[in-house]
Amino acid sequence: MGAPELVLSVVGTLAGVLGTYFGYLGVRRTRRRPDPDPPAPPPASGAYDVFVAYGDDDRDWVREFARRLSAAGVRVAYDEVVARPGGVRVHSLEQGIRDAAHGLLVFGPTALAGGWVRQEYHALMQRSIETGRLFVPVLVGDVELPGFAATRFAADFRGVDEATYARRLDEIVRALRAS
């Protein structure tokens, strides 16, 4: 291969590379751009005063607790309130947490054994840290509170009589209204 053939070969290769590059640039401009990130969720709408997270073993206790909070004028959200037939559980729970001004987690012996409750705990914890909203641990069983919950004053309902139950419930109602 002589010099003229070598020059033609190099020029041809260079033309092919440049043609491919500029062709790519043309296609790149017309390709669909990725959608922008979705907007941040809106701040709590105030639909509920408190979201109550709990383990399945504490369901009956929570129903009565929520009934008594509601009787005291507190707008209470928990899974049975925010769930809709055919809805996606995680979306309903997230929306309930977003729509509540504050969070409360009922700590029974198996509360954090369930994956959903752990997720609710983390969401409530993060929200409390970022926004300063109340996070109230409620003790109904002999449990060791996890790190973040242990930094908060807990409402202890373990083995209480009716008068003490009513007093502790009133303390929670006052704390929710004061914040």
TrEMBL record:
<dbReference type="InterPro" id="IPR035897">
    <property type="entry name" value="Toll_tir_struct_dom_sf"/>
</dbReference>
<protein>
    <submittedName>
        <fullName>Toll/interleukin-1 receptor domain-containing protein</fullName>
    </submittedName>
</protein>
<feature type="transmembrane region" description="Helical">
    <location>
        <begin position="6"/>
        <end position="27"/>
    </location>
</feature>
<keyword id="KW-1133">Transmembrane helix</keyword>
<keyword id="KW-0472">Membrane</keyword>
<keyword id="KW-0675">Receptor</keyword>
<dbReference type="Pfam" id="PF13676">
    <property type="entry name" value="TIR_2"/>
</dbReference>
<keyword id="KW-0812">Transmembrane</keyword>
<feature type="domain" description="TIR">
    <location>
        <begin position="46"/>
        <end position="179"/>
    </location>
</feature>
<dbReference type="InterPro" id="IPR000157">
    <property type="entry name" value="TIR_dom"/>
</dbReference>
<dbReference type="GO" id="GO:0007165">
    <property type="term" value="P:signal transduction"/>
</dbReference>
